Amino acid sequence: MTHKLTFAALALAAATAAQAEPTTYQIDPSHTFVTFEVVHYGTSTVRGRFDKKEGTVQFDRAAKTGKVELTIDIASISTGVEAFNGQLVGERWFKATEFPSATFTGDKFGFTGDKVSEVAGTLTFMGKSNPVVLEASNFNCYLNPMVKREVCGGDFSVTIQRSQYGMTQGLPNIPDTVRLVVQVEAVKQ
Fold this sequence. Notes:
Blueprint: H1 2-18, E1 23-27, E2 33-40, E3 44-50, E4 53-60, E5 65-73, E6 77-78, H2 82-89, E7 101-112, E8 115-125, E9 128-144, E10 149-161, E11 177-188
Antiparallel strand pairs: 1-4, 1-11, 2-3, 2-11, 3-6, 4-5, 5-7, 7-8, 8-9, 9-10, 10-11
């Protein structure tokens, strides 16, 4: 009888573990960067980043599911040239007064083995929403020795057509294709 009770207890514990709830992680703004790259008149690549961003990640490694909510402050754009930043947030380009933020909400996680390989969701920018798939070039979780909590993150990228979001300034001299790169780390709550 003792063996049957022990087996039943182990089976119950295994079933409970299999139904684990997603873990919530807070995006660490000091280790998360959203950058863009666009070719400038067929010569060099213009790069910029958004310095203010916030969000959360819910992640269930066992169920291979998750959800990402990331908000980007458009006025926090930084190209390294203050005058250029001012042009970009103005009415000809990003229209930051009218559209102060961009958001990404992803709820379809793809996996290769136990590693996240992509996150599909919706990018909302300049008042327009379109589906996108962020491809992961690496992903990992580790115990951070500084904060003594689990941190998960990786590098993700997607190429979008800016005209789909209503940004047509400079076409065709400045291409429609823009590469977005998201470096993200999030701390377990």
